[in-house]
Amino acid sequence: MATDDPGQPARWVPPAGTVLALTGLAISIYLTIAHYTDPRTLACPDTGALDCAKVTTSAESMVLGLPVAVYGLLFFGAMALLNLPAAWRRQDVRLTVARLAAAGVGVVTVLYLVYVELFRVNAICLWCTGVHVVVFALFAVTLIGSSKTLVD
Amino acid sequence: MSGAKERRRRVEEMRQEQSRRRADAVRRRRMTMVGAPIAAVVLVLGVMVVIKLSGTGAPAEVPKAAAGSTVAKLTGVPAQTLIKAGPPPDGTRLLPVSGEPPLEQDGKPRILYLGAEYCPYCAAQRWPLIVALSRFGTFTGLQESRSSATDVFPNTATFTFRSASYASPYLAFTAVETQDAEGRPLQRLNDADAALVGKLNAPPYTPEESRGSIPFIDFGNRYLTTGASLSPQLFDGLDHAQIADRLADPADAIGKPVSGIANLMTAGICALTANQPADVCGDPVVKSLGEGLNGN
């Protein structure tokens, strides 16, 4: 986990963060396109409990007039920039705090969305779950990478 | 000399010990900073899943996937059958809504349905609603269900919207089934829709004593229906496939009212979609019913 450079994150952290952010970005682009074209085109099983279209066309899928997928797109775009290796190399505390805050907002939003899927929509969207896993992993990577900068 | 050496060795050992303790403390702080938030997130997720699995989930009577042939008959009533069925039974109407902004989603008019699986009137009302909506789009995930076994008109055969989704280039559809067939909580309106229903499912649109009753359908904030447009008694003793079969006959005691009410709903929807699609909204019965709506 540690490197020889004081304050620098482990070597695997920047590429892991970048890959996760880009993965999330790709899924968000897919969900956004599906939202604005035809939600039925989502490659997703429809077995009652698992139903992407039901989740992505529910009233809860819109926030302030925009689909949740668009917010995901903005989130992962910002996280991709904050996780660039060059951004990690800069030991700027403001950057570290911004990255941590964004990851925190992301994971809290995921908890809310999981609640909505389980208790309001009563269906699970596998693509959304993929996004949730990526956000959680990004949160963990950000914490691990930032711990050295903030604690040392 | 040996005393001085011994002192230096002890000082060196103390320094190493302090250094080790500092490193341990830093390691502990890092572990806490990383582990505590992750553990908190995992805990919250775990609690939600456990509540879902042990609480309101797993109802005794779980709706089952509808037979493809039954759904096909329900969602594909031929246009000629609907035309022959004509207008709805006397007294059936869509109530015009005034003073509300159009109800929309993604720039499309939105229809909001509120009902419950136990409710026999909702069970009856879903039949014409599905027929009408199927003229504008496609349902997936419709499941066969029955109304409560202990309420009036027990075990009325119907389809629940709980896991259904609807896609249409012309309109959006939101369905909320608040309780399952045994009255347990199922789905909830979001806050905005709950406020809207609270406002419209009340006088002057319904008598005070019927305030908040279901089924309630809001057609884009332009028209609404409260209660069932046909009696659940019609479906007594019939299963889903038998009812679906009878929809093909425009003179049948079930086929005629279901198609007639679907025609009225279709006319209401056409008023929202600027008469699109033309082949549906140009149907002579729908056109005539639409003119009647305008005269409301």
UniProtKB/TrEMBL annotation, chain A:
Ranges where the Vitamin K epoxide reductase domain occurs: 10-146
GO molecular function list: oxidoreductase activity; quinone binding
Transmembrane spans: 12-33, 64-84, 96-115, 121-144
Key words of the record: Disulfide bond, Membrane, Oxidoreductase, Quinone, Redox-active center, Transmembrane, Transmembrane helix
Membrane topology classification: Multi-pass membrane protein
Cell compartment(s), UniProt: Membrane
Major subcellular location class: membrane
GO cellular-component term (any): membrane
Family under the similarity heading: Belongs to the VKOR family.
Name of the featured protein: Vitamin K epoxide reductase domain-containing protein
UniProtKB/TrEMBL annotation, chain B:
A Pfam family reported for this protein in Swiss-Prot or TrEMBL: DUF929
Name of the protein: DUF929 domain-containing protein
Transmembrane regions: 31-51
Organism: Acrocarpospora corrugata
Alphabetical list of InterPro entries matching this protein: DUF929 (IPR009272)
Region named Disordered: 1-24
Domain of life assignment: Bacteria
Keywords tagged on the record: Membrane, Transmembrane, Transmembrane helix
Basic and acidic residues bias: start-end ranges: 9-24
